[in-house]
Specification:
30% of the residues lie in helices and 19% in strands. By secondary structure, it is an alpha/beta fold. It has two domains: 242 residues, Rossmann fold, CATH 3.40.50; 81 residues, 2-Layer Sandwich (Dihydrodipicolinate Reductase, domain 2), CATH 3.30.360.90. It has a nine-stranded mixed sheet, sandwiched between helices. Strands 8-7-10 form a three-stranded antiparallel sheet, with helices on one face. A hairpin with an 8-residue loop joins strand 14 and strand 15. Helix 1 runs antiparallel to helix 2, helix 2 packs parallel to helix 6 and helix 3 packs parallel to helix 4. It is globular. The chain starts with 20 loop residues before the first strand and ends in an 8-residue tail after the last strand.
Length: 388
């Protein structure tokens, strides 16, 4: 007969992906209320249509070039793949050919909640709509939900005179603002012209592609900054060094032009006043750690909640974090300077044990030695049988 607990052993935690994006927005066709996996712009074009302008009700003929009719979703999907993205889930916002509402965007975001792969969310071009503030808040609400493990890429509206007023509306380490919009070369009117057309586009498609490229080439723990923007002619306006310092301190990331480098993404600040989560790569890295550990310890569910299980879970997480430390993601000359893992009677009360809760505390030095940010991991185990 096998003794209870002898079969428990450390498992290997497989790192989750971080480069898959989720976009919501308007499209001339395609499914509504469903998230579709897109692996190329050609696939997006087949399902949701091409780059042609949207036909919106209520706009006068004289406003056929109104910015609200630009197919920002399609152009941003193109920018995403051009900048290094390879996997994208798209959810179409149903607006009945009218200007989209926050409710429509919320419904589109809902379909992305169950897609675990998504690590970044955007609604390209949302900032020009009448309900832009409410749409932006829906994006933040979406990424702040428990176990969402993703961040929101936000934008400052084009031609805005005071970016600080928009930035002040959000205080979240799960979001980042980007400014200004970018001019891109695209087949703006493929049915009428064979020439490239310069068009002002929102930053989110470019940014999400750069996130993906950065993750692949350098790692999610690296700041997605000082990286070239591909497929962009240049920013909407020039940002001076003095203005850059001011806006960066406010938590607004910028696009700047440097001689010999072209247009560069400059900044990696999160939209938060919390100094502990100042950088968006730190939030993204911790989302990656939490998601990987959460998924990689699901085997502990319904196991007997005792010393043997605690030891196996500790060693499972420690082995994973050693690999992270060896890859240069954690600070410290030795593993015990880079992280700690606790899973014992100091992390669980008797009430936790009685209710089948396994709780681990994981501390990681991601910025400076001995500065730990705490992750609390909880799994459900077998509840002890009540005494007779």
């Amino acid at each position: 007969m096998t003794k209870t607990g002898t079969s428990l052993r450390p498992r290997v935690i497989q790192p989750v992906g971080t480069s898959t994006a989720g976009f919501v927005g308007q499209a001339p066709k395609g499914p509504v209320g469903k998230a579709s996996l897109i692996s190329s712009f050609a696939e997006f074009e087949r399902i949701y249509g091409g780059l042609d302008a949207l036909k919106l009700k209520g706009l006068k003929r004289s406003k056929h070039n109104d910015p609200k009719t630009v197919n920002y979703l399609a152009h941003s999907v193109h920018a995403f793949f051009s900048n290094g993205g390879s996997r994208l889930f798209v959810s179409r916002a149903d607006s009945d050919q009218c200007e989209p509402t926050a409710i429509a965007f919320a419904a589109a975001l809902k379909s992305l909640e169950s897609v675990d792969e998504v690590a970044m969310i955007a609604a390209p071009g949302y900032s020009i709509f009448d309900q832009s503030g409410a749409i932006m808040q829906e994006l933040v609400n979406h990424v702040e939900k428990p176990r969402a493990y993703r961040v929101a890429v936000l934008e400052i509206p084009p031609a805005v005179k005071d970016p600080k007023t928009v930035r002040a509306k959000i205080n979240s380490s799960y979001a980042a603002f980007y400014h200004p919009w970018l001019y891109g070369l695209t087949q703006g009117k493929p049915k009428t012209s064979k020439k490239d057309t310069k068009l002002l586009l929102p930053p989110s498609g470019f940014v999400c592609g750069i996130y993906a490229r950065n993750d692949f080439e350098r790692g999610v723990f690296k700041a997605p900054a000082n990286l070239p923007v591909l497929g962009a002619v240049g920013p909407e306006r020039t940002i001076s060094a003095a203005e850059q310092r001011t806006l960066t301190e406010l938590g607004i990331n910028l696009f700047r032009v440097f001689p010999g480098k072209g247009t560069v993404l400059w900044g990696a600040r999160a939209a938060t006043s919390d100094p502990e989560w100042k950088y968006i790569n730190l939030r993204r890295y911790f989302a990656y750690l939490e998601h990987s550990i959460d998924r990689g310890t699901q085997w502990a569910v319904f196991e007997n909640n005792g010393e043997a299980l605690w030891s196996a879970v500790r060693r499972t997480i420690e082995d994973f974090l050693v690999n992270e430390w060896q890859n240069g993601a954690l600070v410290g000359s030795k593993p015990n300077e880079a992280f700690f893992v606790r899973c014992d009677r100091t992390t669980m009360t008797q009430n936790d044990l009685d209710n089948g809760r396994l709780i681990c505390l994981v501390g990681v030095a991601a910025i400076k030695p001995a500065e730990f940010v705490i992750i609390r991991i909880t799994q459900q185990t077998i509840r002890p049988k009540p005494p007779r």
